[in-house]
Amino acid sequence: MHYYGPYSDELNDDLVEMGIQKYIDIQPDLSGFGYHIRSGSEAVDSLDSVTKRYAENIDNCINKFGQFESRQLELLGTIHFVKHIAGFTNVDDIIEMVSVLKPVFEKSNIKEYYEELMTIMG
Fold first, then answer.
1. What 3-state DSSP class applies to 47?
2. Are 74 and 102 a contacting pair, CB within 8 Å?
3. Left if phi > 0, otherwise alpha if psi is -120 to 50, otherwise beta: which for 26?
4. Which of 1, 50, 92, 113 qualifies as a FRET site for 30, CA 20 to 30 Å off?
5. Distance between CA atoms of 86 and 108, rounded to whole angstroms?
6. Cβ(47)–Cβ(32) under 8 Å?
């Protein structure tokens, strides 16, 4: 299930569980890049109250990040990881570390998406 960005055991476990319960349907992308997640046969109406309490957060996340492609989300996720999880505070250091972790991205792109993420996150 893991293709891009920092791996999350917790997120993977949640996706697998939601797939087993048919809340979501996970299919690999036919072009070989990532996967698609769609509502499953037991979709949103049958989610229990524990899941419903996150609906506003999920909607907020979709509104903020739903327009990005997986490659862009990979970069945004890595920037977030370096800044908030790894604890880098200096912008130049963040860009440098992301460049080390994801050498496929140009530093100018990393800087552009860093600024985009800071705008989105407020």
1. coil
2. yes
3. beta
4. 113
5. 21
6. no
CA distance 45 to 54: 14
pTM of the model: 0.62
Distance of CA 57 to the CA centre of its chain: 14
- Asked if residue 39 lies in contact with residue 94, where contact means CB atoms within 8 angstroms, the answer is no
Please give the chain's pLDDT, 122 residues, in tens. Answer: 445 666 778 888 888 888 888 888 888 888 877 778 887 766 655 556 667 778 888 888 889 998 899 899 999 999 999 999 999 999 999 999 999 999 999 999 999 999 999 999 98
Domain segments of the chain as ranges = 1-53, 64-122
Instruction: Name the 3-class secondary structure at 41.
Output: coil
Strand partners, 73: none
**Burial (CB count <10 Å: 0-12, 13-18, 19+), residue 83:** buried
Can you give the C-alpha Rg of the chain in angstroms?
Answer: 16
Measured CA distances, 67 to 51, 53, 72, 73, 88 (Å) = 23, 24, 10, 10, 27
